[in-house]
Write a structure and sequence with these properties.
Oligomer: single chain
Distance between the termini: 56 Å
Strand order of the largest sheet: 1-2-3
Helix content: 40-55%
Number of domains: 3
Number of strands: 6
Length: 496
């Protein structure tokens, strides 16, 4: 097989990136291309990420000396995951930022109710009705509410939007030297690295006074879309050979509009697309304070560290598939379902597939129908209920009503199947991840940006919680762990 290697240097505004391209002929004589992505993965697979026999041997020691008998958690009344046996969260703090309601208290008894979510005491459903009925974008208004605790009037909202627009820019050469110089296969890694690197550009990076922290938070809220979109375009250019298109954000556009403007090469989008993306940002902006990434923000903030470190830690939490990556699993599950079921309207076929998923015989064999059920909500997730009303309209605009009907059918059948096949302590309903992945796919958002879009929204909630933690807390958050290890006598090296 003939092989030819071409070494090329790309010069972008004063710095060079070496792009090594391998070309060879296949058996038919056609040219085949080894992309840099393949070379990158091959290098790390062969030179860096190999699991050697030595590592396997040491791993066995980890299992042998780190596995704890599950019965000990019950014996010492340890609430694993900070949740009791009934699924209730362990109280670890107080907040005025948001609240989740999944039960009513009637005569001292908890009765499951339709889920409600409150931002600063306001029902989210009413907030959404407010800005949508006025045909306005809502994310900036909701960000103001979460951080400052009040709904802005027209002048305050205009001033705040102008502040965010002014911060929606990167330091000189940051995109070139930081984002483009070391492209990553993982956009959340790009986002976290950009946040940490911004520390070096801030002369007051370690100042934890509230005015300075507020300034840093507003700047991060403004630039998160740039970090994410520019990182994605860089990834597509250097790993997939696509044209590198970098659009400068426009000050007159909302956050949602700027995301679509910067993401799409032609910068075109419909009003409905922008409004639904804006709604997604609003519904993901905050969630009760007890979610993993927000708790991470508060734990790290309580140590007195800087804003960039706290936000990077939250990003690391959100990146996990049990938290921010759930909607990706929903989309992948539906793709598998669509290829496995011949008739999308046949309830028996769809139900059969869902039962196979539940019993680990289909999809990823994890036994989970993704997008169904929630750690807190019982009868319904209000965010999913709100989203559902707009998803159908977008599916009509995109010519994907058949898929919407399939989602609706799965939502109906999955609830029935889980309740009949599994012992559960509360109701089962679709959560926001069930529909958000479908929405993102209709907006032509790439899978690589699903979790960063979540982060672009949730940075508003993280900022509010960081500021609240710094204003009210004087102690570092330090939970207790009980040791269940036996005491041992030291043995000299020659006798071990």
């Amino acid at each position: 097989m003939l092989r030819e290697t071409i070494a090329a240097f790309l010069f972008i505004k004063g710095f060079s990136i070496r792009l090594r391209i391998g070309r060879h002929l296949n058996e038919k004589g056609d040219f085949m291309m080894n992309t840099k992505k393949e070379n990158h993965e091959r290098f790390f697979r062969n030179q860096f990420s190999e699991i050697t026999p030595e590592i396997q041997k040491l791993t066995s020691l980890c299992y042998k000396h780190s596995a704890i008998d599950p019965e000990l958690y019950k014996q010492y009344q340890v609430n694993r995951g900070l949740r009791d046996l009934n699924g209730n969260g362990v109280l670890t703090g107080l907040t005025e930022i948001s609240e989740i309601q999944a039960f009513d208290i009637v005569d001292g008894t908890k009765i499951p109710c339709e889920g409600k979510l409150f931002y600063r005491g306001y029902n989210v459903e009413r907030l959404v009705e407010g800005f949508t009925s006025d045909n306005r974008f809502g994310f900036e208004e909701i960000t103001y509410l979460l951080i400052f605790g009040k709904l802005p009037n027209r002048e305050e909202l205009a001033e705040f939007t102008e502040i965010l627009a002014g911060y929606r820019t990167l330091p000189a050469n940051f995109a070139r030297d930081i984002i483009m110089k070391a492209p990553s296969l993982d956009m959340m890694n790009t986002l976290a690295r950009s946040v940490l690197t911004l520390h070096a550009y801030d002369p007051k990076a370690n100042d934890t006074s509230i005015p300075n922290v507020l300034r840093q938070c507003l700047q991060l809220i403004a630039v998160f879309p740039l970090f994410s979109i520019y990182g994605y375009h860089t990834y597509r250019h250097y790993f997939d050979g696509q044209s590198l298109v970098i659009h400068t954000p426009k000050p007159e556009l909302s956050t949602a509009e700027n995301i679509l403007h910067m993401l799409r090469p032609d910068s075109k989008y419909t009003e409905l697309e922008a409004k639904i993306l804006d709604l997604a940002l609003v519904l993901h902006a905050e969630h009760g304070g007890g979610n993993n990434s927000t708790f991470t923000t508060r734990v790290v903030s309580s140590s007195g560290t800087d804003t960039y470190s706290a936000v990077a830690a939250a990003l690391g939490s959100l990146k996990g598939p049990k938290h921010g990556g759930a909607n990706i699993k929903v989309v992948q599950m539906f793709e598998d379902l669509k290829s496995s079921v011949s008739d999308w309207e046949n309830e028996q076929q769809v139900a059969g597939y869902l039962k196979n998923v539940l019993y680990k015989n289909a999809f990823d064999r994890e036994g989970l129908i993704y997008g169904m059920g929630h750690a807190v909500y019982s009868l319904s997730d209000p965010r999913a209920d709100i989203f559902r009303r707009y998803v159908e309209a977008l599916s009509k605009e995109k010519g994907r009503t058949d898929e919407f009907k399939l989602y609706a059918l799965v939502e109906k059948l999955a609830k029935e199947i889980i309740e009949s096949e599994r012992k559960i302590y509360k109701g089962v309903s679709a959560n926001i991840d069930f529909y958000s992945g479908f929405v993102y796919s209709m907006l032509d958002l790439p899978l690589e940006l699903y979790t960063p879009i979540f982060a672009i929204a949730r940075i508003s909630g993280w900022s509010a919680h960081r500021i609240e933690e710094l204003i009210n807390a004087s102690k570092i958050i330090r939970p207790a762990y009980k040791s269940v290890s036996e005491r041992k006598e030291y043995v000299n090296l020659e006798y071990r």
